[in-house]
């Protein structure tokens, strides 16, 4: 039952998003705005809802793999600009973890929350695994990833237009570095070249974050003590 409800709500949200034609009316945001109150009113446990939607979760994996096709089409540009790509993704990953750690410590967050924050700008499975390995809470990490992704999906293209950023490498790398899969999905709706570089950044930043997160967590613990 809840699988059907989710699918109907999503297609309704897509229809509303296209009719309104504004970034704030993101399909995911609309879907959440409908589904969460419905589940609360109906008193449906999360485990029950998740079990009914297992197939949607399963389809996330082939959907991510499908992003490899536009990436394959951009191989000549990737080869020509690999230094810029690696530098942008590396700096983006480092700054994401550094700023999250410093702001959290400044606001006197506990060490478990800091561990959950470090993976906020990578895709959900990696963020949850990083958080779990560092002693954080995977559920909090997943929520933070969702929030960051929504901000990117809603605000990125208006900011690009405001600053006159038109190059697909610049737009794609920034979106994938900061807003992972949700941002990449937004890129796919706008421009296939943006989506290709966003998916590349998504993968590279996931690798960088997985490798560097323990070092930043140790740095955060040192500052916290």
TrEMBL record:
Organism annotation: Vibrio renipiscarius
Protein's UniProt name: Membrane protein
One Pfam family of this chain: LrgB
Location of the protein in the cell: Membrane
Transmembrane segments: 28-46, 53-72, 84-107, 139-160, 200-223
Topology of this chain in the membrane: Multi-pass membrane protein
Keyword terms, alphabetized: Membrane, Transmembrane, Transmembrane helix
Predominant location: membrane
Gene Ontology CC annotation, any one: membrane
